[in-house]
Design brief:
Strand content: under 5%
Low-confidence stretches: none
Helix content: over 70%
Structural class: mainly alpha
Shape: globular
């Protein structure tokens, strides 16, 4: 006679009901409101709103800066994760904790701090100004802010993979005469690519809709440094809710696409690991 399994959490029906209720209240209903408000415009008016030159410019600024920031984070995040995993040094635990500071720090505080640092009168901005480089109130400043908020995603995605990576493969490659660059490219990097891709995609999605840490350093110049979330806020301040939700709906669709790609990468990674 088989023993009935005991579960700490209530049965499937109750658990599923609670899950669906929470998801509906927190996620599904708010997101559905975007589609409802956007539907008030009609398809022609919807296209007219999201294809306005100012809106298209905002999309371009948001997407290009988020993409560049994700690429930088993919490289620098891997370097940071490598240092934290492969080396021991004083203050390592403190540095490991600081990585998650962008998660805990209010975005407005991060934006003000970065602006004061990167402005022409700031510590970093003044040095760059002497070289003829302007950081604050440019796309470069926006990218710096997005790198700041996005790098923890890559570090925390790559770090566990590096910790579990078997060093015997590297030692075997070294014995066979492979150089360090060859070992990294042929032994280590293939193992990191799934996690690295996931971390970079999550960082890109996070950067795409960022507002608080960017709005101060961007300068908010139309057709130059104005991001899509700021245009949404401007529409809301003018009580044009259908236009605001239409722009937000476009951002939501891209976020869903990014989330779908992340899930595909994770599923493929799990399949590969399961086959080993």
């Amino acid at each position: 006679m088989m023993k009935k399994s005991r579960r700490v959490i209530p049965g499937f029906g109750i658990s599923l009901g609670i899950t669906v209720t929470i998801l509906s209240i927190v996620v599904l209903i708010p997101l559905a409101s975007l589609a409802i408000y956007s539907a008030k415009l009609g398809f022609g008016e919807f296209l007219a709103v999201i294809t306005r030159p100012r809106v298209l410019s905002g999309f371009w600024v948001s997407f290009i800066t988020a993409f560049v920031a994700a690429l930088v984070n993919a490289v620098m995040g891997t370097v940071v994760a490598w240092v934290l995993v492969r080396y021991s040094f004083p203050g390592k635990r403190i540095m490991d904790g600081i990585i998650e500071l962008p998660f805990a720090l209010p975005t407005a505080v991060a934006g003000i701090s970065l602006t004061s640092l990167m402005a022409d009168t700031g510590w970093v901005g003044s040095l760059a100004a002497h070289l003829g480089i302007k950081i604050a109130y440019t796309k470069a400043g926006i990218t710096v802010a997005l790198i700041f908020i996005g790098i923890p995603f890559v570090v925390r995605a790559v770090q566990p993979v590096l910790e579990k990576l078997d060093a015997s493969y590297e030692e075997a490659a070294s014995v066979l005469g492979a150089s360090k660059s060859v070992i990294f490219r042929t032994v280590i990097l293939p193992e990191l690519i799934p996690a690295l891709s996931t971390g970079a995609a999550l960082a890109f999605g996070r950067c795409l809709g960022e507002y608080g840490s960017v709005v101060f350093i961007a300068g908010n110049q139309p057709f130059k440094t104005e991001i899509a979330p700021l245009i949404i806020m401007s529409e809301l301040q003018e009580y044009d809710y259908p236009a605001a939700t239409s722009i937000a709906l476009v951002m939501l669709v891209f976020s869903f696409v990014i989330l779908f790609l992340v899930n595909v990468i994770q599923a493929r990674n799990a399949k590969i690991l399961g086959g080993k």
